[in-house]
Amino acid sequence: MTALIGRAAAEVGAEARPTTSGSRAPRPSGRRTRRAKYALTVLAFLLPSAVPLLLFVLGPMVAAAWISLTEWNLLAPAEWVGFENYANLLSDPETADVFLHTLYYIVGYLPLVYVGGLAIALALNTALRGRTVLRGVYFLPVITSWIVVALVWRWLLNPSNGVVNTVLAWFGIDGPGWWTDPAWAMPSIILASAWKDLGFVMVILLAGLQAIDPELLDAARVDGAGWWRRLFSATLPLLSPATFFVIVISLINGFQVFDQVYAMTGGGPGGATQVVVQQIYDLTFRYGKAGEASALSWLLFVVILAVTVIQIRGQRKWVNYG
User: How many CB atoms lie within 10 A of CB 303?
Assistant: First the structure.
């Protein structure tokens, strides 16, 4: 009798107990519910940044794309012209000139700001007395208004009574015309730009230097490598991720150079410093050609995108993340 009761209780328990496979496989409806909740949670966290992105970045980009297909002077109603603005820009020699001036600026600015920032970062990465204060001093121009910096450099490089030419005269050197001379106007802007951005490059490269394992450099020193050999064979390869970031950001900013050009030369003298963004500004607010200006801004976007994609693909060959 006891055996029969035990066997019946075991059968009832087996029927009431859920199977192993059933306990592990969630119901499809429950899985969808969890995914929906997760998506809503992610959306809630992204909204504070997604809304400004849509309103102030993607929205204006779409609007500029539509305006680029019209003829509009900011006052009268826009007239649809299709791709005529793009055709006019691509056939206008002035478009090639402003892109060449922008490229000239980048070629002069990028090596100067990188080498200068690297030199400062290497110096401040040593046991230098007062290095914390020096880091703040070098970074101060980065947070200074571009208009202030441009006006200060315009005064420093004044051909008649500027500080730079005055110092050069002490050594018997006749200083150039700087921002008043078509041959020296762009170097003046490059010099001011590099001085302002040295602090930013210095901070990024200094962070990269401090992330390098000191044991690797010590091993190179033990092997007899001198300072220059350690720099080129160990430090710079290990610093390549920070270098890659600096180059990408500097190139993007270089293609969009405007503030210093506007404040120092206004695109002159004789159009020697007329860069792409300055041309966009002039087409819009001086000549009332907002359609052509929008088309030029999209051409600039395509160029920046292409250069960035090339860099991202090429970095696999020289950037060391290990």
Answer: 15
Gap between the Cα atoms of 294 and 298, Å rounded: 6
CB 305 within 8 Å of CB 251: no
Q: pLDDT digits over 41-69, tens only?
A: 988 898 888 888 888 889 999 999 999 99
* 308-312, long-range: CB < 8 A, 24+ apart: 308/248, 308/251, 308/252, 311/244, 311/247, 311/248, 311/251, 312/248
Task: Please list the residues that pair with 70 across neighbouring strands.
Answer: 80
pTM to 2 decimal places: 0.84
Residue-wise pLDDT tens digits, 170-208: 999 999 999 999 999 999 999 999 999 999 999 999 999
Q: Which amino acid is at 242?
A: A
Residue 70's nearest CA partner among 294, 299, 286 is 294
User: φ, ψ for residue 80 (rounded to 5)?
Assistant: -70, 125
Tokens of 78: 């826009």
